[in-house]
Amino acid sequence: MSALLDAAALVVACAGVLLSFPIGAVAGLRPAVKVLLDFLLAAGLLRLSVDPEWERLLTAAVVVAIRHVLTAGLQIGTVTARRAAR
Fold first, then answer.
1. Coil vs helix vs strand at 53
2. CB of 20 within 8 A of CB of 65?
3. Which of 8-45 are b and which e, b meaning 16 or more Cβ less than 10 Å from the residue's Cβ?
4. What is the pTM of this model?
5. Which of 54, 59, 73, 79 is least crowded, fewest Cβ atoms below 10 Å from its Cβ?
6. What does pLDDT average to over the chain?
């Protein structure tokens, strides 16, 4: 069962990488980063469900933290660009 979930986590992570490129081309960087990090978080949670070790929990927590920081940073950049356009 753990090999199946590890393989599923790998497929989910690869899908996130592959889907983020067309989303980035169509919708921009911010949605592409969100999609990529959501898929990476899903892959991390799948790996965590296999064997709840501290290393896997830390990996999932780091992905969540990176997602929050990048999303906030990209939003600040968007707000600054909107103000400059006025």
1. coil
2. no
3. bbeebbeebeeebeebbeeeeebebbbbbbebbbbbbb
4. 0.73
5. 54
6. 83
